[in-house]
Amino acid sequence: MARKNDTQPANAGKTPPVLVALLGLVIALIGLNTYLLWETRNLAAATALGAQPIEQEPTDPVFVNISPFTVNLQSDQFGPRLLYAGLTLEVPSEKVKATLIKNMPQVRNRLLVLLSGQNAEGITQSEGKKVLAKSIMDSLVAPYNGDEEIAINDVLFTEFIVQ
Predict the structure, then answer these.
(1) What are phi and psi of 28, to 5 degrees?
(2) Cα–Cα distance between 124 and 74 in angstroms, integer?
(3) Confidence grade of residue 102 (pLDDT, cut at 50, 70, 90)
(4) Structure pTM?
(5) Burial of 108 (C-beta count, 10 Å sphere; 0-12/13-18/19+)
(6) Which helix (H) or strand (E) holds 80?
(7) For residue 118, which of 105, 131, 137 has the smallest C-alpha distance?
């Protein structure tokens, strides 16, 4: 005859999977909390000692001067108009500067073609100059002689006369 105490449930030695998952989650949260507390402590200690986060030193800007030139603008109600312009390009590195200087005939050609298509009324306004500077930048970043595209940070007008 079987006694009541002799029979044991089939899963008496096994831990339910939900309990295992819950235990794993608790351990992960404790680990994450410990890590965050440790990092906060290290950051507070560094701040208390006066340490500043390491920042890269700003580099001096690199400029490419383009000698002034005169170009015919589109005729308007006043007849033929002229633009006398001098530019300076701000570029990110000496390498870009060297590429532009090496290809200066192409740079000047692109500028002359772009500027000769402008309307005098549009470029005499402040907003027109900003749009023109953006157009110049877009025109000059295109590859030169199979090189890759270059970066130009800014286009600065050093001389600008519309007549």
Answers:
(1) -65, -40
(2) 13
(3) very high
(4) 0.61
(5) middle
(6) strand 79-91
(7) 131
